[in-house]
Structure of Transaldolase:
Amino acid sequence: MNALLKLVEHGQSYWIDNLTRRMITSGELECRVRREGLRGVTSNPQIFQKAITGTKDYDEQIENLVGGGRPCPDVREIYEALVTTDIRNACDILRPVYDDTSGLDGYVSLEVSPHLAHYTEASIEQARHLFRLVDRPNLFIKIPGTLAGLPAIEELLFEGINVNITLLFSVERYEAVAEAYLRALERRREAGLPLDEVASVASFFLSRIDVLTDELLRHRITPEVTRRPEPDPKTMLGKSAIANAKLAYQSFKRIIESDRWKALEDKGARVQRMLWASTSTKNPAYSDVMYVEPLIGPNTVNTMPEKTIDAFADHGAVRDTIEEGLDEANAVMNGLAKLGIDFGLVTAQLENEGVQKFIEPYDALMASLADKCQKYSNRRSVDLLQKVARELRRDVVTMTTEAGSGHPTSSLSCADIVAALFFHEMRWDPTDPSARDVDTFVLSKGHAAPILWAALHQSGACHESLTSLRKLGSTFEGHPTPTNPWVKVATGSLGQGLAAANGIALANRLDGIPGRVYCLLGDGECSEGSVWEAAQFASLNKLSGLVAIVDVNGLGQTGPTPYGHRTEVFARRFQSFGWSTIEIDGHDIEALLDALYRARKGGPTAIIAKTEKGRGVSFLEGVHGWHGKALDREAMEKALRELGETGVHMTVEPRRLGQIRRSESEPVPPLKPGYRPGEKVATRKGFGIALEKLGESMPDLVVLDGDVSNSTYTEFFARRYPKRFFQSYIAEQNLVGTALGLAVSGKVPVAATFACFLSRAYDFIRMAGHSRPPHLVLCGSHAGVSIGEDGPSQMGLEDLAMFRALAGSTVLYPCDAVSAERLTELAVKTPGIVYLRTTRPSTPVIYSEAEDFPIGGSKVLRSGGNDRFTVVAAGITVHDALAAHDSLKQRGISVRVIDAYSVKPLDVATLEQAARETQGIVVVEDHWRDGGLGDAVAAALNSTVPVHRLAVSKEPRSGTMEQLLERHGISRRAIEEAILAFG
Amino acid sequence: MNALLKLVEHGQSYWIDNLTRRMITSGELECRVRREGLRGVTSNPQIFQKAITGTKDYDEQIENLVGGGRPCPDVREIYEALVTTDIRNACDILRPVYDDTSGLDGYVSLEVSPHLAHYTEASIEQARHLFRLVDRPNLFIKIPGTLAGLPAIEELLFEGINVNITLLFSVERYEAVAEAYLRALERRREAGLPLDEVASVASFFLSRIDVLTDELLRHRITPEVTRRPEPDPKTMLGKSAIANAKLAYQSFKRIIESDRWKALEDKGARVQRMLWASTSTKNPAYSDVMYVEPLIGPNTVNTMPEKTIDAFADHGAVRDTIEEGLDEANAVMNGLAKLGIDFGLVTAQLENEGVQKFIEPYDALMASLADKCQKYSNRRSVDLLQKVARELRRDVVTMTTEAGSGHPTSSLSCADIVAALFFHEMRWDPTDPSARDVDTFVLSKGHAAPILWAALHQSGACHESLTSLRKLGSTFEGHPTPTNPWVKVATGSLGQGLAAANGIALANRLDGIPGRVYCLLGDGECSEGSVWEAAQFASLNKLSGLVAIVDVNGLGQTGPTPYGHRTEVFARRFQSFGWSTIEIDGHDIEALLDALYRARKGGPTAIIAKTEKGRGVSFLEGVHGWHGKALDREAMEKALRELGETGVHMTVEPRRLGQIRRSESEPVPPLKPGYRPGEKVATRKGFGIALEKLGESMPDLVVLDGDVSNSTYTEFFARRYPKRFFQSYIAEQNLVGTALGLAVSGKVPVAATFACFLSRAYDFIRMAGHSRPPHLVLCGSHAGVSIGEDGPSQMGLEDLAMFRALAGSTVLYPCDAVSAERLTELAVKTPGIVYLRTTRPSTPVIYSEAEDFPIGGSKVLRSGGNDRFTVVAAGITVHDALAAHDSLKQRGISVRVIDAYSVKPLDVATLEQAARETQGIVVVEDHWRDGGLGDAVAAALNSTVPVHRLAVSKEPRSGTMEQLLERHGISRRAIEEAILAFG
């Protein structure tokens, strides 16, 4: 007979500290009970976590529990259902033991949630609930012996619910627990309830005590002191747990020997046995049965893991040991005190750690259950979503044939993705396109517009007829534009969606909206560098709610895309840019749902979906030559026959996040520039100072800069409002694209870099124009040759042409710090795209603080009754114009000087007046000759007076500002010559 | 006594088939010779490859051989020196055997290059050379018994050079070899030369024969046939080699028993022994001494590897066996024939494979020696290059302080890289900046210009004073521009260099120039997406000569770069874009040289160099806040003291590749458009057709397209001249950047995409302007709202403004297929940047084939003596203007119609004439209102007549062309109304 079977002769039951479904279904547990003398089972959250997440044994039950419904049932309900099933079955297996021992043994323990360790009432309620749910007399509810646990224990025992008090480390707490038991029994007696129907064990923990005290002892073991401490800490290693337990047992004995107990016992009360827990040896240097052998004696239980059971069966020695070595036990506990080890602190720490040790696996289990729920819940949606995707495909084919053009095949490849998003994963509200507390979708591959229109139409968000596609007046345009209210940013120039998605995600973060942003890209557009600028920004800014989905259909417009279906290429790239990636079959709805679910965490995430262009229609699928071509009617009919009718029409119920935190805008007080006249301050600095001031009263003002904030002077804002400043590094396309995303999400973004580098983002600026943002300010500093020594690559010479060309844009160009501040103030309040041009060198302040600068206005700086000529200048050239005025005045020539700070809209009235009143106009600007202020003035004046344009017309060089203004004919001298030439 | 020592009693010597320096220096070889009866050594290229590349035993000698010189000595010379050293030493160790056996034994064999197996004369020469070089009588030169080898063998033997004939597989060839020996001896006898001073062995190969014949036999062993072949192939496995060798020995015996031989032997001739080679057992199922035991007999040698020697010593059986089993041997050979195995083919194949088996390790050894040479050669350069780098740093500090601005710290971080490139790795010619048969350097991080100027100055390429930096007139500008003749493309807008490098590399490939292109990037600029567009293009186009060097100094303008010194981030990214990568310390010259050497192969390669900004000056190194700031004089003096003076002034000797393959341009005959008047052909198609025609007579014409070649119609060219067409996918920045690189390398590039998408590359276009390429044509198709249904994102509406603004640009805009062809023809011949705007819809041909379209011209399409008004149109609007003319004419209003196909330069004379002769001008264009033709005309006319601009001024929608022209007021009707409004 092995050692285990002998234990019972010495009054000790052994239980097992593990329970899994496999143990039950395989017959292992039954075998242990019947043949190996096992008399009880304990469980805890950690044990269930291992069992449930480590095996597939629970999956079928989980799937059944999830049912067809959505949203998923509460994971705690699922947890309860899973564990009570096991516990109930285990109770039934142990029932014969329970019956044979008249309720002394044969128990199974189930722990309440570790999150309740400090909640008395909740513990009581959950214990009642679990006891009812399992509905077996041989069930122990485990309640930790925390301070909050004590009254719960008493109450539950009073109510006749068996309690295994767990997490006991100290003798004192054990005694309190025993007291609770006594009181509960006494209350039952008073209430006339039977005493023999309630049981309890007090679980006293062992090995963890040694782990911690040994650590403390080792702190005291050092060769670096000559005088050894007393007692020698070395000799005490691995002894505290046993010593403590033996002393606890003495308390137990005192209690059961008390008259108080005897009185209860006489009424049938069962003894509250001591249960030794945490009995596996942690230190491999120690005996593997060290927590079993010395603690054998009457009225005890030892609950062991398999390994310890096996070890003890193999070589455990059995005799009554529990009362041996009590002197040593006392010596050990005294010794700890002598060495300065406060055992009270030890046990308190262990109690805390014990709670934490269960919370962690419990939470992990809940998370894992949530994952599984989602998966099964998804599975039930697959069939329906497949049908939805089929309907979307039918719509795509029909509407493009009707339109006679469009991109059906590019839409078919992503039909499943769009179905999964719009009809399952995305939380959105088809009744409210302006809602912000929702997930957002950005169709970066804009040519797939038909699939978007189909989804909006199917879901009930848009009621327009799909056959209006591409027809004048329809919001279903060839590529998405905000004419359709569901479109946040116009797309169709590829590679731009992700940058906008960055901006939307940033705005969500600023406003506390937990929405996700889904951006659907094509594989072909991943050749655009802007995608990688955006990818870098997203990971640097930890935009975890951003999900890029790449529709890798492998075919571009003119042939295969560079990497065909090699999804791993895209995965490696996104990874190298700091993203999580998931590669899937983009037509497998279940895989899609799973990927989307996984993408909820740990983002930014790129889902790389392998798809077929033209998917769903045999003669289109993966066939080159169909890009951007609609089917004729005959082919359409064939396609529709293949796709079949599903009869499904799935609308989307509104799902909103309900969370949004926005600061109310206060009225913005007018800025007070506060410069001295003549003070030399660069306009770029004036801009920076104004931004910082505006930041205070405009909570929606956000600023982006491309690693030149100490040149553009956005650094003032950045330092003051770091959360509203976004360092965009040297990546101007993403700078503008992200600003646009912010702009369409209610922010007022100001994006700044050198004027010349805004040309890097011209396509983004162009598309921003088509996106019609409420506010978007772009500031270009270092305009013109006046920057001097850095040379032509750093000179903004095309910027006025670029921004003037944009329909509806505003172009402002201050010449001094006052106008710079004023125009910055105006810029952030002016609707649409506003371009603000600033200058590198310092220029003298010429305006008073009170000066007003309306959009579309100008300033006549010098004027007299007999002005013969007019000089129109802006920015840096205003100062040369004034100098020329003075100089010409000395020569008797009177010249009107106009500061055309509003380059667009231009102050036509003032210019026309000058045209009428003077004999010639010289326009002088630090910009290429064509497309700038000169063109603007010439076109506006429309013929009444000669207009002479002074501007940069030959390749600039490095040199001083003065040299360059002179060299390029835009200096004071050049203006004078031009005026004299009229003469 | 072990079996080996007994062999000699049976007339067989055993040799070892291995030789390493370690065997010699350790005494192992001597021990084998003195104690274990070893009587000879053979070697071959494979053996030396293992010895030389697998150990460090040769490295010291290699380093000495490399010496201080550059370029490295020929690796074959080094090889010879290494092996003849070993061979000579081995000969000396075996000399006692040679002497003791009177020259019968004690030989060491050295093989000629395996590349000479089929070259008689070269084999003879090399054998003579090696025999002289080793200068030992007991040397065998190994010559393969190929057909080309036979006469060489005879000649060498005649000359008294001992020959070991190797690679013998067939009896027939063995007999031919024996005949060569006989003839050589007979010729010596005739020439009166002694016969006892020349020796030979015939090496007959064994195991390889079994490997191959067994394979062929196994093809014939199958359970799937019922009737077994006869003989049973199974029974013949592993028998052919021995059978063949035994039969060869019978030939040997016949020869030495012949009278002819006896006559020679009488004169002292030594017998040409049979040598058994390839005697290690390959098939583990066979005995490990199977190629030794059965072939023991007089006048034989068995040359074995160590393993076989050990096996034979251990368990070999020795007796006279060579003449046993001759019947079986014949049966085996007959059996092979019966089974259809042609043994002649077997031996021929083995001979070929035998040669290959030596070529491979020989070549690998040469490559490995080249690597080692380079490494040692580099090491000798390190000290000097460090000093050069120090001098460059001194120059950088001095010149920026002198200039009072610039980027010293960004230059200091890459001083070592630049020193390694310009003064060591790059093959270039400081006397000729226009040379193309050289390596090219592109400074993508243009703000580090000072380090480039310093290198050009130090190397003697530029004689301008460095203190002219950033001064007006100096070619040492703030950022590199082609004002300095060494600068290919202007840089300073970051992230553009690599695309240009792509173009230069493509041009090199087209012209057969084996030059490499080095592009130096900063880590900060790797945030630019354009870098990754270029990286993708380089790997897709396998630009193996392209080397990107990233100067990861970890500091940007405003603070740390996004990834600091994490070079692995860049390495992973470049890898994910298909590049080889090498991460190094960018200040370790030796590591740099090694990386540059490795980058010569397997590119494109990115060298990711970890550096410190401000390196070399303690108070600048890695210190933030120094970006773009010059030191003051005091700080400069301190920096110079730290850097110290080296006294080194290293000029660079010209190194040119001397290879260039260019097709001569023929005179381009004028195109013959050949359309019918009124035929409807889109101008984009006319452009495509013209390109294809021009391709024939313009070998330098190259075309690039961004995956829209079937829309732009560059597909015609692509199909006809695929090698001159570069698919650039959806990456317009790289499209333009690569075109620029081609343009500055003598090509005439035409890059095409939708007009709107050229806005994506505006910064590249801007910088191309500053780069002043001889020719660069950009074609934008799908201009304006006339594209119709695709909607605003696809409409080029800013392109005229963009291109007009560029100083020196030409902007052309055809309205029909004839003018499209003519203007395409002109575009490729017009210097500088030419923009050609084409239209999507088909338009009627209005011009005759003979029509001429000068740049700066226009066409007056309708004109009469009494024109009241003028309509100026271009492109699509020309047709509406003509229609308006007709309609107004019916109403009695005479209107002049001008086709302003040359938007820039504009035909001012014709316009001024119209202004003088008519009362109002309407300009009508399919473009945004500002910056286009209207502005151009208004600015040009300068006041003489009212100019009314019709252009697109509100946001377009999807719709038909006709609807949109109407909606945006640029239709026939709108023109009429505008004319009528003049009243």
The domain at 859-982 of chain B is CATH 3.40.50.920 (Rossmann fold).
